[in-house]
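Private note to self, pasted from the team thread so I don't lose it. Backbone tokens:
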């Protein structure tokens, strides 16, 4: 553990559960990396991801975006390809794009979007895109005929969340350079969305633990019971 991280951890009470705004203020006050770090939320939910009726996943438009520029690849042809390009897609193609990914290892994108008719080609890329979490999926809005809107929303900060095998949601709520109000608003937007997505079979306490951290910094425990300011 480096000297800087030790100094940062010394300013955090490991036994205390901070209010969300306090945690964000504390993280922003710590001397961090030379680049603009992301602020991450890690939410442990009382769910069993092995059960289909307790899988928590979806998409969310953060009110203040993530501060991160995401590169979007779109599988489309004809008018839909032009629509994607006009919306700001970084790369657009069909079988040619699938061949670049499969044969040349092209992976210069963060999100893939496809029109339904393109899934015949995209489906063959499952072994490549699947493990990286890049496979277009109707549930996340990335298999759609409205490719222009999908690209615009992704560029504006639409995020996808999905509980991992341990029951934890990992999400970016902005950059350290964001003002406190913007980060607080994004945090509560994520919390409210997860509450909305609560599986019906889950009983008792839903939010087990919540921590906030920066890319290179220590984590801060957040009181999971705080629903709003």
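Design output:
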């Amino acid at each position: 553990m480096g000297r800087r991280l030790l100094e940062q951890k010394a300013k955090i009470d490991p036994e205390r559960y901070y209010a969300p705004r306090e945690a964000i203020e504390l993280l922003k006050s710590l001397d961090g990396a030379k680049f603009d770090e992301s602020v991450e939320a890690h939410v442990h939910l009382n769910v069993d991801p092995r059960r289909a009726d307790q899988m928590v996943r979806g998409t969310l438009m953060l009110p203040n975006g993530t501060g991160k520029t995401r590169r979007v690849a779109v599988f489309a042809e004809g008018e839909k390809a032009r629509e994607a390009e006009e919306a700001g897609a970084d790369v657009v193609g069909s079988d040619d794009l699938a061949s670049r990914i499969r044969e040349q290892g092209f992976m210069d994108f963060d999100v893939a979007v496809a029109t339904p008719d393109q899934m015949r080609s995209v489906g063959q890329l499952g072994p490549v895109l699947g493990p990286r979490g890049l496979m277009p999926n109707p549930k996340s809005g990335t298999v759609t005929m409205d490719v222009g809107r999908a690209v615009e929303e992704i560029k504006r900060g639409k995020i996808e969340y999905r509980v991992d095998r341990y029951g934890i949601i990992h999400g970016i709520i902005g950059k350290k350079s964001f003002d406190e109000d913007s980060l607080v608003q994004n945090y509560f937007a994520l919390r409210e969305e997860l509450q909305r997505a609560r599986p019906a079979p889950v009983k008792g306490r839903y939010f087990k633990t919540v921590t906030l951290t920066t890319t290179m910094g220590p984590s801060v425990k957040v009181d999971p019971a705080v629903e709003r300011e």
